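Record 1 of the preview.
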Amino acid sequence: MKEIKHKVLAGIAALLILATVFYSLLFAVQAQDVTVFSSNDRFMIPALNGSIQFAQNGSYSSAKFANNTWTFYDLRIDRVLNNSRLGNLEISVQDSNITIYSFYSSNNISVSRQYIRYFAEGAGYQVVNLDVNGTTHIYEWWVTIRAPNSVFLAEGKEWQLLSDNIVIIRGQTGNVSVTHYNFGITEDNNMPFYQRHSILIQTSMLLIATVVVGLVISVKVRKRPHGSN
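->
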């Protein structure tokens, strides 16, 4: 009986290790094809007399420049590496140079949040698209500037929300934050299947492991001679 218990425990451990390795490999595939940038890199917009750079090192899967707008796909900044997911950012500036300090996008069962914080030099304007899906409302957004405390800017005067969730900030310098909150259950359909259903995958793996272990125990019990210990 003790020998059976030891084999069962060993089987459970082996299955859990295999499940963990398999799940890690799924995410490693995505991480292979990225471009790394440093805080010294500057993304220029010559026609609009503007530029964009990041305060921290980071990575993206691709970056596209079109219509005087930079679009970063699967953007990740090192300082928020441990508590953020990959996200897309579309941004343009005119008569302004900005340094992005943080970019965050999160979707879970209780809250959907996206935000960007940057330092702006030059009182031009910035156009920000945080890749928020669906229809949003003014009350879900706020734009603040720290001078020295956070001040909420007036929508329609100092910033504007367009119908496609693009935010335009006008005439601001210093530390600017653009934040969107949507309380409720959301799902990002642009994410890979294994990221959108990561909890389901892990739960399924554990369930399969439990079923397999149960079958092993059942087979071994049936093979035991009657009357053995």
